[in-house]
Amino acid sequence: MNSTSEVNIFLDQVKKAANLLFKHDFVRIYTHHDADGIAAGAILTKSLLKSGKSFQVSFLKGLNEDFEYEKGELVIFADMGSAYPEKMSEIEADLIILDHHIPVGNIKPKRSFVHVNPHLAGFDGTYQISASGVAYYFAQEIGENKDLSPIAIVGLLGDKQKFESLNAQILKDGKERGFVEESIGINIASGKIKKVLSLSIEPYLGFFGKEDELNEFLKKVGIDGDKELDDLSIEEIQRLADALALRMLKMGAYEGIFESVFGRKLVFPKMLIKSPVLLTDVVNACGRANAMSLGASVLLNDKKSVDAAIKIYEDYMNQILMEIEKRKSEIKEGFCIRYLIMDNAPSASAIATVLSRYLMSDKPLVVINIKEGKAKISARTTEKVSQKVNLAEVMRVAAEKVGGSGGGHRVAAGANIEPSKVEEFLKEVDRLCCAMLV
Q1: How would you classify the pairing of strands 94-98 and 332-333?
Q2: How far apart are CA 154 and CA 159, in angstroms?
Q3: Is the pLDDT of residue 3 over 80?
Q4: Residue 52 burial (10 A CB sphere; 0-12, 13-18, 19+)
Q5: How far apart are CA 275 and CA 228, in angstroms?
Q6: Nearest Cα to 39, choosing from 177, 171, 178, 148?
């Protein structure tokens, strides 16, 4: 349980950031391209529109990409910045960082600077608040913006966080104002049951491409696959939950997943996509398809964007699920890690997340995707393993050793390196993980 003083330290950071914002008429915003980053961008967009500020939002895959600004501007980095002190120290403009990744080193600002990061106030940015959550608190200092609570929840779901501490307050705000409803159920996307179970990636159920197996499963459970998930009775929900839990256990899913999947079901009654899980998956798919603005538009309830975003989501889910089926047999064993090297795959992070949480949860998993002359790495593990292995530190140290960069969270981290350095990088990652597991 975090103390009142820690909450006050965090809120003081937020207030200082808002005060710096008020000194500017124009804001240049850079945010990450995943669900949390897109949600943070949408929150900043809506709150700045309400406050009458002029702004521009751009999405980046990482700070290895170029970004521009004018010296007299205010620049905001959301869901990035804390782990790149050298780059942040070079910026010759007023600067706000709204991040939740583990801070690295010291930022030496050239102009006015406010660093809002839960780790700096004693909170855990891996589970207790995401970047969109930080942006949500920032928005409350700008004006009355509790209607943005569902968007912040999309970000925390995208980053596999928990409804505790600062995140719990966001959920409370949403429920008190009628923007979020909570009931007993299964935390899974809405829609026709057969389609939902087949395309589900959170939780991963292994039904994709196995229609006969899915039909047999539903027959045993006694549920009509053409029925809408939201129309199930309490008894049907319980039968389905029990059967899905048993299936996930047999697959080897990490036990910590079950509390996030079973028991609590949220609904966003005022959003165009009312299922938080489905909305999160849609926004994430838009990010992976380089359609970040489309994902943000869906979060801002733009009716014209929904159909196109749903199409991207369905195509993306098919690609990822096919890739998972194909790659399962290609995973190799190190001493203390597992690893997978791919060429031109649609996403390293989604594959790493699913495999490490649902099929191979006992060791850290490192997935490398070599694409366009670069090696993009996603490393994942479980909360249990992360008590000993800090993947953020492993990725940072190993990447720097081979001339790259890395960082993130204890359970989910990433890196960018040259393809020629992959073998050397993997040896160093394995060595570091073994040292931490001693």
Answers
A1: unpaired
A2: 9
A3: no
A4: exposed
A5: 12
A6: 148
Question: Cβ(207)–Cβ(197) under 8 Å?
Answer: yes
Higher pLDDT, 225 or 350: 225
| Share above pLDDT 90 across residues of the chain, in percent, rounded to a whole number | 90
Mean of the per-residue pLDDT values for the chain? 95
Partner residues linked to 77 by β-bridges: 30, 97
Q: How far is CA 347 from CA 169, 284, 325, 368, 375, in A?
A: 32, 11, 14, 10, 12
CB atoms within 10 A of CB 164: 15
Which of 388, 342, 345, 341 lies closest to 363, judged by CA? 388
The pair of structure tokens assigned to 10 is 């965090």
pLDDT in tens, 362-380: 999 999 999 989 999 999 9
* CA–CA separation, 416 and 102 (whole Å): 17
Is the preceding omega at residue 203 within 30 degrees of 0, hence cis?
yes
Bridge-based pairing state of the strands 265-267 and 338-343 = unpaired
CB 218 within 8 A of CB 193: yes
Give the pLDDT confidence of 326-345 residue by residue, as tens digits. Answer: 999 999 999 999 999 999 88
pLDDT > 70: percent of the chain: 100
Cα-to-chain-centroid distance, residue 228:
27
DSSP string, 251-301: HT--GGGHHHHBS-EEE-TTSSS--HHHHHHHHHHHHHTT-HHHHHHHHTT
3-state secondary structure 59-113: EECCCCCCCCCCCCCEEEEECCCCCCHHHHHCCCCEEEEECCCCCCCCCCCCCCE
Rounded CA-CA distance 381/336 in Å is 12
**Whether residue 1 has pLDDT greater than 60:** no
- Number of Cβ atoms within 10 Å of the Cβ of 122: 14
Name the DSSP class of 409: -
Sign of the CA dihedral with 158 first, then 164, 165, and 169 last: positive
> Does residue 58 sit in helix, strand or coil?
strand
Burial of residue 314 (CB within 10 Å: 0-12, 13-18, 19+) is middle
Domain annotation for the chain: domains and CATH numbers: 4-176 (3.90.1640.30), 193-323 (no CATH), 331-437 (3.10.310.40)
Q: How many other β-carbons are positioned within 10 Å of the β-carbon of residue 306?
A: 16
